[in-house]
Each structure stands twice: as C-alpha cells, then as structure tokens.
C-alpha cells in the first residue's frame, strides 16, 4: 500500500482523510499544513510540517504521493504550483469514497476528490484537482476542467462544460447542455437554465449574473486571512452566497 500525505488539515482535510481511509487504497502518513503547528494531532494524524519539508518527509516516510485538501479552487492551484516547484515530479492521487459512483468510460485526471454519495455518469471527463462533493451528481458526458468544483447536493444534467476554477455552490440545479466559463461562481440554491461566461457571479431561480468576479477572488464564507510566503496573500472575505 502506497504512503500518501494530505495537504491541508482543515475540515475539508478531515473529509478527504475519511475518503482515503474508507477507500483503503493508500496508507495516510499525516498532514502537511503551513498554518498549523507541527505535531498538532488532527483526527489521529500528525501535522508533519509545511510544503517546504516535503523533500525530507518523502525520504523519511517513503511517501509516493498525496492529495490537496483545499476547498477554494484558486488557492488549491497556488498550493499545487508550490508543491510542484519544491518537488517537480510529485505524484497527486485521486480519492473515491466507496459510496461514490463513477460511471462507464469516465476519464479522470489527478488530484481529484469524490465525496460520499457523489455520482459521475457515463462518458464524463474530470480533469485535474477537482472536487465532486457530498451527494452531488454530474450528468452523462459532463466535462469539468481543472480546479473546478461541485458543492454538496448539486444536481447537473448531461453535457455540462464547466471551466477552470469555476464553482457550483450548494444545492444548485443545472439543466442539460449548459456551458459555464472560467473563474465563475454559481451561488447556492440557483437554477441554471442558460450559459454563463468567464469571471461572473450568478445566482437566483433562474440564475442571473449579479456582478463580475476577479481572478482568484475568494468565494467561501470565512474571514480567515491566508499569508502564503513567496506567494500573493489572499484575504478570504464573505461572498455573496456561500457554497
């Protein structure tokens, strides 16, 4: 069984840990987190250090790969870039909870998380570092580009095209054949019956564009301020609607 680590020891990290444990394909060694003290115990596992400790951790624990447990799509990309700068050939694994369903001829990239009750129907394509959250369903022939996400209880018809870094929030329903651009957020509870382009916030029933979004703008409901050394700082502020 391969040894893996989880990047991010927040609540999302705990859910990813649960997926990995129940899947039973990997042996989780611990967490890597830049904002929690080394040695902190999370769900029975230690915080082993930060990303800068990776070369040492890989050698000490014979680590063969890992997964990024960061809910915000843009920040997940920043962490992936940092890891690959430190360890260029690092291997990112997928985790599929045993109560998730992956349909026939689905193509998967790397670093994806499929939570309990997630359903991905036939002929879909999931690129890299995506999240399909609890009880969300992606219809047949759907395409999720890298760093996109479906929040819990999203229901999507067939032939969705979801752009990079875009997020579909809690309880959204999307009809067949919808295209959503990059860096776009669909707010909680929306009904999507039309296409949306890049860099917009949309919600409502039916969903309508509320305003433009900037690249990397936070959308999760938290006020935690993240300071990432050698990277741009991110101040996460309350969004129009929480995912």
TrEMBL record:
<dbReference type="Pfam" id="PF17836">
    <property type="entry name" value="PglD_N"/>
</dbReference>
<comment type="similarity">
    <text>Belongs to the transferase hexapeptide repeat family.</text>
</comment>
<dbReference type="InterPro" id="IPR020019">
    <property type="entry name" value="AcTrfase_PglD-like"/>
</dbReference>
<dbReference type="InterPro" id="IPR050179">
    <property type="entry name" value="Trans_hexapeptide_repeat"/>
</dbReference>
<feature type="domain" description="PglD N-terminal">
    <location>
        <begin position="3"/>
        <end position="83"/>
    </location>
</feature>
<dbReference type="InterPro" id="IPR041561">
    <property type="entry name" value="PglD_N"/>
</dbReference>
<protein>
    <submittedName>
        <fullName>Sugar O-acyltransferase, sialic acid O-acetyltransferase NeuD family</fullName>
    </submittedName>
</protein>
<dbReference type="InterPro" id="IPR011004">
    <property type="entry name" value="Trimer_LpxA-like_sf"/>
</dbReference>
